[in-house]
Design brief:
500 residues, eight-stranded mixed β-sheet, 16% strand
């Protein structure tokens, strides 16, 4: 069922064999994707409670894109955007699969003002994924971890350009025995990940599998896509690490501080807000910190293996999270402050991410760029960095960042978001545009707009929509025209809505 090695060109298609075009001198690529990990969850962005020494070290060797974004405030759409180079709305995968409203009863649906549009539950096989583009050019390809780009097994990683699939299937979170507090422990209940010895931790296992595969393929140009299930709920971590961070919280005097608030307009605006809606005010959860620590340690394990194999000078490394940290629901294990909001929201806390690109010999270690970039941009950037031709018809919304990494300016009109769904975290259907220093958010329930100067107001506290009316109208027009140009789906008013 694997797709043929089809290499698209502007003039048509050319069928090539991998061996006929293999170039072992090309750099390897490791893409590290973390789940539900916030911009503020790394030490290099200011966290004093969480500890991320290995991510910090990678940041010091990379270009840090300080205005780096995910294409969506929830998982599946961003994951699809990375692999296709297209905005989620263009492919019509705009919510996590299978979606929040999809699982609600009619009675539950009556509590929502709008009905979200239907969306695709499988990333189309017609898309030439980044993995396929690299495999078509002679790369060995491996997917490890969380997939969540499809619901049906016929669309899993092995059918989207990955020669090996370790752990990738329909589930968006760890699938161990949650009732016994073992979601992150074997047995994994995952058809693409065999169970390990008693006590094995999922995050450790994924890194170990990655290291093993790297050793087996060290003589070939390779593409390793390491997609951690961490730090997705349920928040479960190793006992010894939890004990360490409990002690640290006591030492810092934050273990007794009030960590949550429901005194927010978004909370009060709902007639019956669910009990799990609460916003975390400070980073103080020892178990979440411990889960981050394990993830970071395993990133270190993978990057150390590159050094051991003498591949660190010939391997591109990219790092991203699929959306912002979970700060307003489901236990609210983290805060994204000073950013506003979190997972599910189009405020900065829901979409701004740690965004790193290391290209040996090209990236100036520790360099930064404040150029706004998004998750679609990895596709053309990686192709160019690997000395491969771009596929503009495929990565239609991605911009090649290699010139920026080399010191040039980026000529880009704007970045767009379209999330016509409820994420179940206090958020509501909305869209957004970032153009220069300004960002406009449009809320579909009532047509309300908010405008912020992100450079001057990173916390999005000063709404300029009534002060800079002309700019707000211009950005709204651009956002609406963009939606029309890609045939973006719009939610509709819910006739059964009951404002209790």
């Amino acid at each position: 069922m694997n797709k043929p090695l089809l290499f698209s060109t502007l003039s048509g298609s050319l069928l090539l064999t991998a061996t006929s075009i293999a170039q072992p001198s090309r750099p390897n690529v490791i893409f590290i994707l973390v789940d539900d990990f916030g911009w503020a969850d790394v030490s290099y962005n200011g966290s004093t409670f969480y500890e991320t020494p290995n991510i910090d070290k990678l940041a010091g060797e990379s270009m840090q894109f300080t205005n780096g974004y995910a294409a969506c405030p929830v998982s599946s759409p961003t994951r699809v955007s990375i692999l296709t180079g297209k905005y989620p709305a263009r492919i019509q995968i705009t919510d996590w699969i299978p979606g929040y409203q999809n699982g609600l009863t009619p009675k539950q649906l009556s509590g929502y003002k709008m009905i979200s549009p239907e969306f695709k539950h499988n990333m189309p096989l017609e898309e030439i994924c980044l993995s396929e583009a690299l495999r078509n050019s002679g790369y060995k390809t491996c997917f490890v971890g969380k997939w969540h780009c499809s619901h049906d097994s016929a669309y899993y990683p092995q059918y989207q350009g990955f020669e090996k699939n370790i752990g990738g299937w329909l589930k968006g979170g760890p699938n161990g025995n949650k009732n016994e507090g073992l979601a992150y422990y074997t047995p994994y209940n995952n058809p693409y990940l065999s169970d390990g010895p008693a006590g094995e931790f999922l995050t450790d296992r994924l890194a170990n599998e990655s290291v093993k595969w790297m050793e087996e393929n060290k003589s070939n140009p390779f593409f390793l896509y390491l997609s951690f299930y961490a730090v997705h709920t349920p928040i479960q971590a190793k006992a010894e690490k939890v004990a360490y961070f409990k002690a640290k919280a006591r030492r810092l005097g934050i273990d007794t501080l009030h960590a949550f608030s429901t005194d927010y307009a978004w909370h009060k605006s709902h007639p019956n807000p669910p009990k799990h809606w609460k916003e975390r005010l400070l980073q103080s959860d020892p178990e979440y910190a411990a889960l981050i620590s394990s993830m970071d340690a395993n990133i270190g394990k993978v990057l150390d293996k590159l050094v051991e194999l003498e591949l660190d000078k010939s391997t591109i490394v990219c790092f991203l999270s699929d959306n912002g940290g979970l700060s307003t629901a489901e236990g609210s294990p983290t805060t994204n402050a000073p950013l506003r909001g979190g997972k599910g929201w189009l405020y900065e806390g829901g979409i701004r991410e740690p965004y790193l690109i290391k290209i040996p010999g090209v990236t100036k270690p520790g360099s930064t760029s404040d150029t706004p970039v998004t998750s679609t941009d990895f596709y053309p950037t990686i192709l160019d960095a690997c000395n491969l031709p771009l596929l503009p018809q495929q990565h239609a919304d991605g911009v090649n960042l290699l010139p920026v990494i080399k010191g040039s300016k980026l000529n880009r009109k704007a970045i767009y978001w379209h999330y016509p769904h409820y994420g179940g975290k206090g958020d509501s259907p909305s869209g957004a545009i970032r153009k220069g220093d300004y960002k406009l958010i449009e809320f579909f329930e009532d047509g309300r707009i908010e405008l912020y100067n992100i450079k001057n107001d990173i916390s999005e506290q000063n709404d300029l929509s009534r002060k800079q009316i002309r700019l707000a109208r211009s950005l709204l027009h651009d956002l609406q025209q963009w939606r029309k140009s890609i045939n973006a789906q719009i939610p509709v008013q819910n006739e059964l809505y009951q404002n209790k």
